[in-house]
Specification:
Two copies of one chain form a homodimer.
Chain A lengths: L12 H14 L8 E2 L2 H8 L3 H13 L3 E4 L3 E4 L33 H7 L6 E2 L12 H15 L13 H13 L9 E4 L1 H13 L5 E6 L3 H9 L3 E8 L2 E2 L1 H10 L2 E6 L13 H13 L4 E4 L24 E6 L11 E4 L4 H13 L4 H10 L2 H29 L14 E5 L6 H11 L1 E2 L1 E2 L13 E5 L5 H18 L1
Parallel strand pairs in A: 4-14, 6-7, 6-9, 9-10, 10-11
Antiparallel strand pairs in A: 1-3, 2-3, 5-12, 7-8, 11-12, 13-16, 15-16
Helix pairs in contact in A: 1-3, 2-3, 4-14, 5-12, 6-12, 7-8, 13-15, 14-15
Chain lengths: ~475, ~475
C-alpha cells in the first residue's frame, strides 16, 4: 500500500494513516469488505514502527469503520455507494490550464427527455443505428467461445496495428463483392468508424484549419471537428446531395483542408449524391488538392433504385479516404470500423493509429473475423434490407396519414432515416419536449448543423429500430405534439 | 452490387462490368467461391439490359475466372492470396496532401531481427509488458461467457463514454486499496493506457507546443509526441529520478505545456523518483501552471523497499492526470486502461474521448469488470511480485556473473526492466544484430531518446517474461555478443 505520508508534518504519522483510511472509507472509495494490509506488512511498506500502524487501526476500529476477523485480518465495514463528485462548485480553485472553451454536454438527450416523460409505452425514433435485435447474439456468443478456445493467449496479445490480417482480407472481399475492389493492405481497422474519422482529421488538419461539411451532417462528426478546434465551413444539400457549384465557390474562397461527405443515404437526410456530381466532386478534389473523407456508414442498405458506386470506387488517384463500419451488421458496442486508403497516406494513418491506441482489441477483431463471412454478410444484408424497407414504408405511410401536408420530406431509397422539414417558423427543438410528453422522441435538426448555420425546423426520424405498428403509433404521437406546438 | 460504370465512356458497358470483375478476381480481391449476383439482379441494380450483364459473365466464364453451378448461381473460381500492394513505387503520382514529414517505420524490430537469425531456441528480453502466461486465460474465458449470457445485447450496445460504471467503481476501489483515494466519477476508461496518453496530449497541446520528458523515456510516448508534431524537451534522469533543478531551468527557459513522467519503476530505467522530489515536482507544476501526466504503468509491482505514493496521491490540487492500465494484470490485447483526473479537465477528457471513438468496447469492459475483484487483484499482484522478484534476481546474478564489470546498472526495486549502460564508445544499436545472431534480443537504448539527445550506449532488458534458466542463458549470449562487439 502506497500511502501519501508527510514525515515533516506536525500531524503524527498514525493520524495521517488513520486520516487517509477514514476518508477513503467514508467517501466510499474503500470497497466494503476490502481487506486492509496486515499491520506488520503496512509498517514495512511505509518504513514505520508497527505500533504506529496498530494505533491507527485501533482508532478506526473504535469508530466502527473497520473490524477484525480473528485469524483472518482486518476488513472495511460495509458502506453506501459513494455520492457523485461535484466539480463545478469550486472550479476557480483548479489550475488555470483546466479551463478552456468547452461545449456544454449537460443538455439532456432526446431519449433522456423521453424517459423523463414517464410514458407507459415510450417510442424512440432518435436512434442513430440499425436495430440491434436483428443481431444474432447467440451465434456471436458461440463464435467468441470458439475464438478464445482456438487462439488462447494469442487472442489477448497485441495485434498488428493495421488490424488482424484475416479480418482485413474478409473486409476486402466484402467490399469487392459490393463493387469496390480493395486490397487487404489498403484497409486499417479502427475502433468504430468514429475513430476512423478522428484519425483522418487529426492526421491531416491542425487546430484552426478549415474542414468542409455538407449541411445538415452527422452530429458526431461536428462534435469531433469542434473538439479538434477546426473551423467548420458548410455547403447545404439539395435533392441531388452536396451542391457542387457552391462547393467550388468555397474551395476558391477558402483554404479547405478536408471535405467530409456521406454521398450515399446521408445522415440525417437520407439523400444520395447523384453520379454526375460524384465525378464532379472527385474532379474538384483533384484540381484543388483537397482530400475527401467519405463516410459510407450504410451505403449498401438500399431498398430500391439504381446502385451508385462509392466515391472511393470512382477514385483511382487516391483523393478519397473511405470510412465505414460493421455496426449496421454487427453491434455498435463492438467498436469495429475500418478505413480504406490508397497511397502514402495509408502508412501515415497506420502510424497515427498506433500512436493513438496501439491497436484495436485483438480478441474482438478475431471474433468479428470468425463471424463475418461473405455468405453471412450478404444474407444478413438481404434480411436487413427486407425488414428496413417494410419499416420505412410503414413510416412514410403514417407520415402521409398522420402529419399535415405542410410537413415536407423526401422518401429515402435506403439507409435508416427520414428527414422532416416543419413549416417555416416552427422549431423542432420546441417540438421535442412536447413529443416526449406525448411519448415519442426524435433527433432535433439543430444537432446536425455547425453553430454558424443552424436551421431548427428539421428533424430526423429513425425508421429502422421500431416495428411497423409502433412506427404508426409513434408518428401519431408526433402529430399530436405538432398540433400542440401550433 | 455498386459497380463504378461510366455511361459516357467509349468502352461498352458489358466490357466495363467484365473489366471490374476480372481485375477483382485476378488481384484476389474477390474471394474464391464468392457468389456473383444473378444477372437479373445486377442488371436491375445497375439499370441495364440483362443481356449486357450476361455478355460480361459469358466472357469471364470463357476465360475460366467464374463458373456456374446449375440452379445455384455463378461463383468465383479459387485463386491465390493477393500479393501485397507497393505504394512507394509511384509515390509521386499521389496527390500532394499525401506527403509529409514522416518517421520511417521500416526498421525491423528487435524481435524481428531475432526471428530472422533463426536460432534454435531464441530468447527475447525486448518485450515491454509482463508475462502473458501468468494470465489465467481459462478463467477469463468462462467469465466472458457469463457476461454475454448475463447481459446479452446490452453488452454489445454503446456504453457510457466515461466507461462502464461498475468497472470504474472497481478501479476506484483497487486504487484506493493501493493507497490512492479515487472516486469512480474521476475515472475515464481508455483503450489501453496509450490512448490515455494520446487523449491528454491531444486535448492539452497543439502542434509545435513543448512537452517535457525525462530521458530515457517510454518509446511509445515519444512516438505519440512525434505523431502530434510536438516539440520534445528533455531532462535526464539520475539515481533519484527526474532532476528537479534542471527541470526548473527548463520551465524558466521554455513554455512547457505538459510534463510527462513515470515516477515509479520507470520505463526503461526502472528508477524511482524520490519522495522529496515528488513534492518538489508538484510545487513546480503549481508555480509554473503546468499539468503533469503521470504514467504509473507498474507502480505496485514492488519487490522490496519502501512504498512511494503516486504523484496523484500527493496532489489534491488537480495538477496531475494519472494514466494506468490493467495490462500487467490482464492482457495487453484487451486494450483496457484508464485515466484519473480531478477538476474541470475530467469533463473535457470525456468529451474528447467520445469524439475520438465514442467509447471503449462495452463487452470487453464488462468482462474485465466481472473478472477483476479486489481479492483477485491483490492475489494476482502478490503472485506476480513473487515470480518477477525471482526472475529479477536471476537476471542481476547472471549479469554480474556473465557480463564485464564495465557494464553498469542500478538494481531495480520493482517493475519489469533492468537498464544496462555499456562502456562509453560502445553502441547498443551495433550490439543488437550481434546479440540476435547469438540468440537474444533486447530493446536498444536509442529508442528511448528524442532525436536531439540520443544516447546509444544503453539497453533495456525485460526480466519478467522469461524463466530464470532462460534468463541466465540469455545473459550468457549477451556476453558473447558483447565480446564480439569489442
Amino acid at each position: 500500500m502506497r500511502l501519501p505520508l508527510d514525515r515533516h508534518s506536525d500531524i503524527p504519522l498514525y493520524r495521517q494513516i488513520e486520516g487517509f483510511l477514514r476518508q477513503g472509507i467514508l467517501s466510499g472509495s474503500f470497497a466494503p469488505e476490502t481487506r486492509l494490509p496486515a499491520t506488520r506488512t503496512l509498517a514495512r511498506d511505509l518504513g514505520l514502527n508497527r505500533l504506529t500502524v496498530e494505533t491507527a487501526y485501533a482508532e478506526l476500529q473504535a469508530d466502527g469503520l473497520i473490524y477484525t476477523r480473528s485469524g483472518s485480518g482486518t476488513y472495511v465495514l460495509p458502506r453506501f455507494q459513494p455520492a457523485p463528485v461535484a466539480h463545478t462548485s469550486s472550479d476557480l480553485a483548479w489550475p488555470r490550464w483546466h479551463h478552456a472553451e468547452m461545449r456544454s454536454v449537460s443538455a439532456p438527450t432526446p431519449d433522456e427527455l423521453l424517459a423523463a416523460a414517464r410514458q407507459p409505452h415510450p417510442l424512440s425514433l432518435a436512434n442513430g443505428t440499425g436495430d440491434p435485435h436483428l443481431f444474432p447474439v447467440k451465434d456471436f456468443h458461440k463464435i467468441m467461445q470458439t475464438v478464445i478456445r482456438r487462439d488462447g493467449i494469442a487472442a489477448l496479445e497485441y495485434g498488428d496495428p493495421r488490424g488482424y490480417a484475416p479480418l482485413r482480407r474478409t473486409i476486402a472481399h466484402v467490399l469487392t463483392s459490393q463493387g469496390m475492389a480493395v486490397h487487404p493492405d489498403q484497409i486499417l481497422i479502427t475502433s468504430g468508424s468514429q475513430q476512423g474519422l478522428a484519425l483522418v482529421s487529426q492526421l491531416l488538419l491542425k487546430p484552426g484549419d478549415e474542414v468542409l461539411v455538407e449541411t445538415p451532417t452527422y452530429a458526431g462528426a461536428l462534435d469531433l471537428f469542434r473538439a479538434l478546434n477546426l473551423s467548420i465551413v458548410s455547403v447545404p444539400l439539395d435533392a441531388q446531395g452536396l451542391q457542387i457549384e457552391r462547393l467550388e465557390q468555397r474551395l476558391q474562397q477558402r483554404l479547405i483542408k478536408l471535405i467530409y461527405t456521406m454521398p450515399t443515404f446521408q445522415n440525417p437526410t437520407g439523400s444520395c449524391l447523384s453520379t454526375p456530381r460524384r465525378r464532379q466532386l472527385l474532379a474538384l478534389a483533384d484540381r484543388y488538392n483537397v482530400p475527401i473523407l467519405e463516410d459510407d456508414f450504410v451505403g449498401d442498405l438500399r431498398y430500391e433504385g439504381r446502385a451508385q458506386p462509392a466515391l472511393k470506387a470512382l477514385d483511382p488517384g487516391g483523393h478519397v479516404i473511405y470510412a465505414s463500419t460493421f455496426s449496421k451488421m454487427l453491434m455498435p458496442g463492438l467498436r469495429v470500423g475500418f478505413l480504406v486508403a490508397t497511397g502514402p497516406i495509408y502508412d501515415r494513418l497506420v502510424n497515427f493509429k498506433r500512436a493513438s491506441d496501439l491497436a484495436t482489441s485483438n480478441l474482438i477483431q478475431r471474433a468479428v473475423e470468425a463471424y463475418v463471412t461473405i455468405g453471412r454478410y450478404q444474407a444478413h444484408l438481404r434480411r436487413s434490407c427486407q425488414i428496413y424497407r417494410q419499416r420505412r414504408d410503414a413510416m412514410l405511410t403514417s407520415i402521409k396519414r398522420q402529419l399535415p401536408a405542410s410537413v415536407q420530406f423526401n422518401p429515402p431509397h435506403g439507409g435508416l432515416f427520414v428527414w422532416l422539414r416543419l413549416p417555416a417558423g416552427l422549431s423542432s427543438s420546441e417540438l421535442l419536449p412536447l413529443a416526449c410528453e406525448a411519448g415519442v422522441a426524435f433527433a432535433p435538426g439543430r444537432d446536425f448543423f455547425p453553430a454558424d448555420s443552424v436551421e431548427d425546423n428539421g428533424l430526423r426520424l429513425n425508421f429502422a429500430t421500431q416495428q411497423p405498428a409502433d412506427i404508426e403509433e409513434a408518428i401519431k404521437r408526433l402529430g399530436i405534439a405538432l398540433r400542440r406546438l401550433r
